[in-house]
Amino acid sequence: MSGTNEIVGTTVGTTVGVAVGRHDEPARDELLRVEGLTHVYGDGRNGRVGRDGRGATPAVDHISFSIARGETLGLVGESGCGKSTTGRMIVKLLSITSGRVLFDGRDISGIRRRADVAAFRRQVQMIFQDPYASLDPHATVRDIIAEGIDNFHLVSSGRGGRGARAERAERVAELLDMVGLRPEHADRYPHEFSGGQRQRIGIARALAVDPSFVVCDEPISALDVSIQAQIVNLLQDLQRRRGLTYLFIAHDLSMVRYISDRIAVMWKGRIVETGPADEVYGNPLHPYTRSLISAVPEPDPRAERARRRVEFDAEAFAAGLGGGGLAVPLREVDPGHWAAIA
Amino acid sequence: MSEITEDSGNVVETGGIASGAAASGTAASAGGDERPVRVSVRDLHVTFRKDNLDVHAVRGVSFDLRAGETLALVGESGSGKSVTCRSLMRLLPRNARLDGDVRFDGRDVLALDRKALRDLRGNRIAMIFQDPMTSLDPTMIIGRQITETIRLHTSVGRREARERAIRLLDQVGISDAARRFHQYPHEFSGGQRQRIVIAIALACHPDVLIADEPTTALDVTMQAQILDLLADIQRDTGTAIILVTHDLGVVAKAADRVAVMYAGRIVEYGTADEIFYNPRHPYTWGLLGSTPTLDTERGRLRPIPGVPPNLAAIPAGDAFAPRNAYALAVDERYEPPFFAVSPTHAAATWLLDPRAPQVEPPAEIRWRWRIWHELQHLEGAA
Question: Structure pTM?
Fold first, then answer.
């Protein structure tokens, strides 16, 4: 395993830019770059040192990708594939066992100082799956949304006292309006809202500090169909208006295809395929991607009657690779479309 | 639209004229279907008394379920689909009031005594839920959970029950069943647990299987396997299935007929093809418009605005009207009756009243209607 991983690691760092442009040129206007990112649960070292945990399977195993400014990268895969772990490492909610995260050209994987982490958090925010669990039930919507504003002193202190309070209220009202809620909602508590409205509150909170990059971790999975579409439209609208960049993590493949410019498919802690969304769906190259797409039912009975599901046989696939294990490096099969196949 | 309001005296009558299966507002099964009706529900109402308020969870639901078919109940949370299902087994909390007529093989379910009810639940109707752990005992090996069900409802001995349980596990795709018989629920994955629940549900050969969001918590490949498993079981045993889901992809894959629910009522019902390719109710349009297919282009998703109504204070007229871009003036005052579209298809929308204006549905619905015409054409040619 380690031998192959070495290869993947080096390949990734040098040639496999897995991404926007061709591998031989730097990604246009790259905002986020992840190199050889690895997480081993229970590594016990708070992530500073290299791979540890002999015998432990890494939840995320040497993955690399990059995201251009204003772009949405969809990260898909089944539960336990490491997609949420990846998102959490990027926002520094989880330690990095090894590898690097470069944000706007700066390696943030090693930053420690509180001021540095805070500065990073102003740039990078996260939206969670369960808006209810992530909102303080005892705080008003105003205080929830203003938390970031307060932490980062985003209200000009020069005005002081009443002036600052008014500015803060104004800012909260603006944010509520932006996510489609009403100003009077500011005085209410999370339990007074529906799931969709709570997710709007979560979005307002994330955007309060005016970030440039947002990790959306299954943001619509817990919502009803009509509300899912509302939230997805809101996210797209905000992206256009504010030039946001998204990492959109989800298991709902149709919605991911819909919202993403590019997609990365994860399987057992690795990216097995990545490319433009339409390419990955229209012409899946990796047998795992094929099996995944062939299992997504569509709201179209005629398509369902014609559907032929293909199962991914990991053992047969590995055997076909000739004893190298499953850790095949990604290779560019079509321009911008990479797959971990022989 | 003003015609209808002015002439409101005739409105309800007009609705009543709607012919065939639709006249009674019943999601009855296909005309000419000879399969026996297993479950028949007429004008079901369920009201919960909560904090001195009446929450109208189900407001006049009617449908038939025949042997061997799968009926999908589709709708958002709070639409009444789960409460409807639980009513069939009378699995409702104490503060629920149940009115209407529910029959299982002709027997009045609402009049059953405790013993008869237990017999019905164990032997005739089985239910599986979204979270398999709702049905599994974490402290008991799974084999015993199956054999207990078998022995509770049949008179077979221990050894025979054990053999049957292993066969069932094998049948639902648990490999190495004889060994895994002795394992606890936590030793299985989510998908395997749902398979075990299905094995328990099948243990007494139910005539009706109610599957309430059975795959919502599962990954897509596991979901596909479970849906295939249910289809196989249905083919082999003729079990009738009620599938509750909000996922229109799952409906398209698994359902023969579909009833779309909103705010405690069925608003449209028909065969799966009728609902997906010839939808007539703006709420059905909204659900379809909210769900991307793998071909939906960017910017083409059309959510339904707003949120479902508070079931303790349902507005007068059509409960969907406040969210309905196609609402007519009449919707604010009169609840629409069912209008028949075909002997198997009806929708409760004033848009189908002959006096209503012709409206152009959203582009993705027009695309579906075109497929419908193609299908009709093909059928005509055949």
Answer: 0.86
Longest pairwise C-alpha distance within chain A: 71
- Taking a C-beta distance cutoff of 8 angstroms, is the pair B1, B328 a contact? yes
Cβ-Cβ contacts under 8 Å, B190 against chain A:
79
Minimum Cα–Cα distance from B310: chain A residue: A194
Using the beta-carbon criterion (under 8 Å), do B249 and A254 form an inter-chain contact?
yes
Locate the chain B residue with the closest alpha carbon to A294.
Answer: B221
CB contact under 8 A, B291 and A300: no
Q: CB–CB of B224 and A309 under 8 A?
A: yes
Mean pLDDT by 10-residue block, N- to C-terminus, for chain A (342 residues)? 34 38 57 95 54 67 94 94 94 93 92 88 91 85 90 66 82 92 92 89 93 94 86 93 95 90 95 95 95 94 94 87 73 94 86
Place of tokens 């993403």: A260
Structure-block tokens of residue A287: 């047998």
Cβ of residue A115 closer than 8 Å to a chain B Cβ: no
Please state the ipTM of this predicted complex: 0.86
Question: Of B224, B272, B287, which has the smallest distance from its Cβ to A225's Cβ?
Answer: B287
Chain A interface disruption, residue of B221, B223, B226, B248, most A CBs within 10 A: B221
Which among B199, B256, B252, B205 is positioned nearest to B229, based on CA atoms?
B199
Q: Is the sign of the CA dihedral B224, B229, B235, B241 positive or negative?
A: negative
Which chain B positions have a beta carbon within 8 Å of A258's beta carbon? Answer: 292, 296, 298, 301
Cα B178 from Cα B168, distance rounded (Å): 11
Beta bridge partners of A5: none
Question: Among candidates A169, A234, A166, which has minimal Cα distance to A206?
Answer: A234
Amino acid identity, residue A11? T
Domains of chain A: 2-104+212-339 (3.40.50.300), 135-210 (no CATH)
DSSP-based three-state secondary structure for A29:
coil
Q: What SS3 state is found at A98?
A: strand
CA-wise closest residue to A288 among A332, A328, A254 = A328
- A323 contact partners, CB below 8 Å, separation of at least 6: none
Whether pLDDT at B91 is above 60: yes
Helix (H) or strand (E) holding A333: strand A331-334
Nearest Cα to A69, choosing from A173, A211, A171, A274? A211
- Domains in chain B, ordered, with CATH? 2-105+207-381 (3.40.50.300), 132-206 (no CATH)
In this prediction, residues B222-251 reach a mean pLDDT of: 93
Residues of B in contact with A313 (CB under 8 A): none
Q: Which of B101, B193, B112 is nearest to B145 (CA)?
A: B193
- Find where tokens 């990492």 sit: A247
Q: Residue A164: its pLDDT value, please?
A: 80
Integer CA distances (angstroms), A212 to A134, A153, A243, A289, B378, in order: 21, 18, 7, 30, 52
Within 8 A by CB and 6+ apart from B331, the residues are: B317, B318, B320, B321, B324, B350
Residues 188-217 in A contacting B (C-alpha not used; CB under 8 Å): 194-197
Q: Which band of pLDDT confidence, cut at 50, 70 and 90, is reported for residue B153?
A: confident
With vertex at residue A93, the alpha carbon angle to CA A89 and CA A94, rounded to the nearest 5 degrees, is 55
Report the pLDDT value the prediction gives residue A112, as an integer from 0 to 100.
87
Tokens standing for B281?
């109710």
DSSP conformational letter for A219: T
